[in-house]
């Protein structure tokens, strides 16, 4: 099982009035990590849309918040592929404090479906892409 790690720094714009990361920003961190994982494989979502005619959309999301992240924290988003089907990929993701303890702050499962860029209908994932993600 491949684990992709993506570093994140918490900026002022990410926090609420109390200096704590606003809950929806964890979802942004998850999204950035998945996008950067694709880039680390030499793939970009723009290129996949243009050349392969496929795009991804989140169809299911389950998130748990364990501890707060705060202004200036250094975090790491850990992502793995939990399952890859014909049309969808289930990612398991965690956000941890980037420290020796690696305290878990948030975790989630994100199901992403492949759809045809022109028709916006479900589309089979290419075999080569399933192999890349595994």
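^ Assign residues to that structure.
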């Amino acid at each position: 099982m491949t684990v992709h790690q993506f570093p994140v720094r918490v900026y002022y714009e990410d926090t609420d009035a109390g200096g704590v990361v606003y809950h929806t920003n964890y979802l942004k961190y998850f999204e950035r990590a998945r996008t950067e994982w694709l880039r680390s494989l030499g793939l970009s979502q723009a290129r996949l849309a243009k050349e392969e005619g496929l795009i991804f959309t989140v169809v299911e999301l389950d998130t748990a918040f364990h501890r707060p992240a705060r202004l200036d924290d250094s975090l790491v988003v850990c992502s793995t592929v939990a399952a890859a089907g014909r049309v969808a990929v289930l990612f398991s993701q965690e956000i941890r404090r980037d420290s020796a303890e690696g305290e878990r702050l948030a975790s989630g499962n994100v199901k992403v479906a492949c759809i045809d860029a022109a028709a916006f209908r479900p589309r089979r994932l290419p075999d080569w892409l399933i192999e890349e993600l595994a």
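The radius of gyration is 16 Å.
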